[in-house]
Design a protein that fits this description.
Strands 3, 4, 5, 6, 7, 10, 11 and 12 form an eight-stranded mixed sheet that branches. It contains twelve helices and twelve strands. It folds into three domains: 4-87, Winged helix-like DNA-binding domain superfamily/Winged helix DNA-binding domain (Arc Repressor Mutant, subunit A, Orthogonal Bundle); 94-173 and 278-315, D-Maltodextrin-Binding Protein, domain 2, CATH 3.40.190; 175-276, D-Maltodextrin-Binding Protein, domain 2, CATH 3.40.190.290. The relative contact order is 0.14. It has helices at 4-8, 11-23, 26-33, 37-51, 67-92, 112-124, 137-145, 210-221, 236-246, 254-260, 291-306, 309-320, and strands spanning 56-59, 62-65, 99-106, 128-135, 151-156, 167-181, 191-193, 202-204, 229-232, 250-253, 267-272, 276-284. The longest helix is centred in the first third of the chain and has 26 residues, at 67-92. The N and C termini lie far apart (69 Å). The radius of gyration is 23 Å and the shape is flat.
Length: 322
């Protein structure tokens, strides 16, 4: 029989508490959770009544955890750790050739290599169901933390995560951003300085996206004004379509350009200095020991050995930096 106490300590209530403890801002936490601020406030007050003490307190406009809040935060992390370890132990005892593998794919990542591999993987492992989900960075970290996905495919380094202890990464390929433009005077250059990229307007990813973040940091480090942005889109396909039809500039990952250069009606050149990062698998520690996940990762390595897609990415990166 479910008691009132059970319902207060539900997974949903604890996830609300964790989100508020992470952001220390009711408005931001509510937006990330997809609920209203009054609904979040109500849940936190219910939790505080249950434990018999305030979990947060304010100094001016700044929110802080109380002593009781810090105790509750440690206990909540312990609960999730126990559940995640139990899930991993159960999965580690499972068969490599059956079950479900859930993969979170960062929405701005070029996906052709992964969808191609998953199709081939199914033919060899028909009893393993692979679920590929397009996600934002925030969604990926939430799902990794709560053990809702086994693997994430994303760009690194990611400084939005303060605690990397529970996670491991496995590099897929080193990436870099290419400057895409329509300028004849820049057409024959092998590299382009940041100062030469701001004459015309740009189309970009939204400001919260990883690639927009590293692009802004690169311009800031070079002490060059960030280009004027006239449109923002969430996928490289949308950006490419806008680029082709309007003649504006943009920056896209080398991997996407290599996979779709025939459809991109623009010149591509490396930045000077290069804007580099890596594409990687990210997962909770121990996930790569689960038989079906280990087999999946090994299968992906073999797949890349037989395909030239990522080899072209690496080779093109070398040529661009010669």
């Amino acid at each position: 029989m479910k008691t009132k106490q059970d319902s207060i300590f539900s997974s949903k209530t604890l996830s609300y508490f964790l989100q508020l403890a992470e952001t220390m801002n009711y408005t931001q936490a509510a937006q990330l959770l997809g609920i209203t601020q009054p609904a979040l406030t109500q849940q936190i007050k219910k939790l505080e009544r249950t434990v018999g003490a305030p979990l947060f307190y304010s100094v001016g406009k700044k929110l802080h955890l109380s002593d009781a809040g810090r105790t509750m935060l440690a206990a909540t992390h312990n609960i999730y750790d126990v559940l995640n370890r139990a899930t991993d132990e159960i999965q580690q005892a499972s068969n490599a050739n059956t079950g479900v593998i859930r993969v979170g794919l960062l929405a701005s990542v070029e996906d052709s290599a992964f969808t191609g591999f998953i199709s081939d993987y199914y033919l060899d492992n028909p009893e393993v169901q692979v679920v590929l989900l397009n996600m934002t960075r925030h969604e990926i970290w939430e799902h990794l933390k709560n053990n809702q996905i086994d693997l994430a495919i994303m760009y690194l380094p990611d400084d939005t995560i303060k605690n990397w202890k529970p996670y491991e990464s496995r590099r897929i390929v080193e990436e870099q951003l290419l400057f895409l433009h329509h300028s004849e005077k820049l057409a024959k250059r092998k590299r382009v300085h940041f100062n030469d990229t701001i004459e015309n307007p740009w189309v970009t990813y939204p400001e919260s996206y990883f690639l927009s973040h590293i692009l802004k940091e690169a311009y800031k480090n070079q002490m060059v004004d960030y280009p004027q942005c006239v449109a923002q889109f969430t996928t490289p396909y949308q950006i490419t379509q806008f680029l082709n039809r309007t003649g504006v500039n943009t920056a896209l990952p080398n991997s996407f350009y290599q996979a779709h250069q025939e459809q991109i009606h623009a010149y591509a050149v490396a930045f000077d200095p290069a804007i580099s990062f890596e594409l990687a698998f990210v997962y909770r520690k121990g996930k790569d020991e689960i038989p079906r996940v280990a087999q999946f990762l090994e299968g992906f390595d073999r797949y890349l050995e037989t395909k030239d897609y990522l080899s072209r990415v690496a080779e093109n990166r070398v040529k661009l930096n010669e």
